[in-house]
Amino acid sequence: PAKVQSLYERFGGESMVDAAIDATFQGVAGDAPLKALFEGIDLDLLQGHWRDAVVKALGNINRYKPAELSKLFAPAVARGFGQGQFKALLGHLDGALKMLEVQPDVVAEVQPLFAGIKDDLLAGDKSAAKTAVVAKGEGGAVEHAKESAVAGQSIRVHVDVLENLMTMVSE
Question: Taking a C-beta distance cutoff of 8 angstroms, is the pair 76, 41 a contact?
Answer without folding.
Answer: yes
